[in-house]
Design goal:
4 helices
């Protein structure tokens, strides 16, 4: 079927990178945050009322776009684009607030795990689009 409709590979690749990945990445990250918050409550560490994470629709579309960027970098043969995007993410995350927030310490590994999963799914989606990965 992919030989008859080669554009379909790209659709499937982007769908896997953008939407299928969300079904795995979002629950994994949410579970890590739930474990962290439970640990804070157990240790009686106060959690500031200001959210560290964006709301769900923004987070969803950010993840879809981010994984799409990674897939596009693979498709175009420009893996350095992934490094550039990761550098932008690091700069944005560098200093979110001047106020101390205990969530930033456990939040950093969660952020890194979510990013690693996004990069992985973006690369897989790119390989599917190029026909280098099949089901």
């Amino acid at each position: 079927m992919f030989t008859t409709y080669p554009w379909l590979r790209y659709g499937v690749g982007y769908a896997v990178a953008g939407f299928v990945a969300h079904v795995i990445v979002a629950p994994a990250v949410n579970k890590l945050w739930a474990l962290t918050e439970a640990d804070f409550k157990r240790k009686d560490i106060p959690i500031p009322p200001v959210p560290v994470r964006v709301n769900k629709p923004v987070g969803f579309w950010h993840g879809v776009a981010e994984r799409g960027v990674y897939a596009t970098c693979v498709i175009l043969g420009k893996p350095e684009g992934i490094a550039v995007w990761l550098a932008f993410k690091a700069v944005v995350r560098w200093k979110m607030s001047d106020k101390e927030d205990p969530r930033h310490i456990p939040g950093s590994p969660i952020y890194m795990i979510g990013t690693a999963l996004n990069v992985g799914f973006g690369i897989v989606g790119g390989f599917i689009a190029l026909g280098r990965w099949s089901f």
